[in-house]
What we know:
four-stranded antiparallel β-sheet; eight-stranded mixed β-sheet; 36% helix; GMP Synthetase, Chain A, domain 3; 15 helices
Amino acid sequence: MSKEAFANNVALRVIDKCSGLRVRKYHRLYRAALNWRRQRIEAYQLERMRALLRHAYDNVPFYHARFVRSRLTPDSFNSFKDLRRLPLLTRTDLRDSLDDLLAEDFRAFGASQHTSSGTTGIPITYYKDTNARSADIAATYFMWNLSGCSVGEKRFHVWGTPDSAAQWHRLGSRLKRKLLNAKYFPAGSLDDDRSYQSAVRMINSYKPELIDGYTSSIYTIAKYALDRNIKMHRPKKVLTTAENLYTYQREIIEGVLGPVRDVYGCGEINGVAVECLEKNYHIIEPRVYVEYEDSISGNSTKRIVLTDLENYAMPFIRYEVGDMFDGIDHTQQCKCGLESPYFREIVGRTSELIKLPNGMVISPVTVFGGAAFRKVHNFNKHQTIWNGKYLIFVFEVTDSFTQEDKSELESIIRALLRRYSVGYRLRITEKIESRSSKFQYFKNDYDAN
Ligand SMILES: [Zn+2]
């Protein structure tokens, strides 16, 4: 038996046994579906969708009311086109109608409670049942497989706050890490020299095959090593997630650590899409049904709409998660050989758009992210803040930062802003404070309402 087959058969069986999950079942489904024809995938998804709609109508007060208001019944849905008659589910709905969004018998599905830190500014609580949690984990493992890594290979995982790291001492968590050959590092503790040294030492002594976690945390570890000329162990793959991956971040991570594959998902629905060799994001189809709605910024970007086909405790049907994508309208199959649909780029979050008083809209990720400041080297990270009147560009700089670097930044910013007629301030600092474990590259300090 190959190492990968062993891992998939034995490790997943043990995980299921210990946790009461069904990871192995879903993992097998996703692997099998790689060889399904389009027609079969669509038939499978339609059948799952109709079953979910029937359940939501019968057991979930929020959806029952929605169906009635829209004059629909589960029998109204015969194709995916019919689905569009049902309004979108928003984060505001989640915040305001949590009780009604739970199935009447939600505890029978093994529901567990989760919260989201609220990067969109709307913190939410939600529930996931046994099948949804199993599908989340299986999709994650499946994405490792697609990236050339196996379950059970040495893995270095950068995640969570110091608080969540406290849970890692539990016996169940320790056993799982042992079984899966994983070491965890708390992303939220990366804030001084000592913590970076410790991350670098752990990677170099453990020599993982896979490093995964928050994009900005992995980037700052790589940048730390680069600035100090520390030679790093190179894993087979680096999987970044949960934040936008800028071009300059990718270049530094790939230079210092190894090839990057970006993963897209959200806390509510994990494992939605993964980047292939061609840098396209392929949808993990049996996991999730994906639709796109036009974006409010009026260009080719679209808002992603997700339906989790597994979560019966708290159905997410036509969920507008708040992220925007580009490069969706294409008909050709991806050159990598995968047949599943894909998008080319994660553009940012809808809440990250800046609406200027003159009516223009700026997408900060698109305009100030990517390679905008690549010519200037002596900074660790930067943040853009909109206060309703002008933009504030904050740069956390290194000791080598010079007056010339500052002038260079000024001229780049002026060029970027020329067409928008909006003012700005440039702030140079030794440290950008962050209250959450994930770095916030854009902050909207202005409440337009
Ligand atoms: Zn591809």
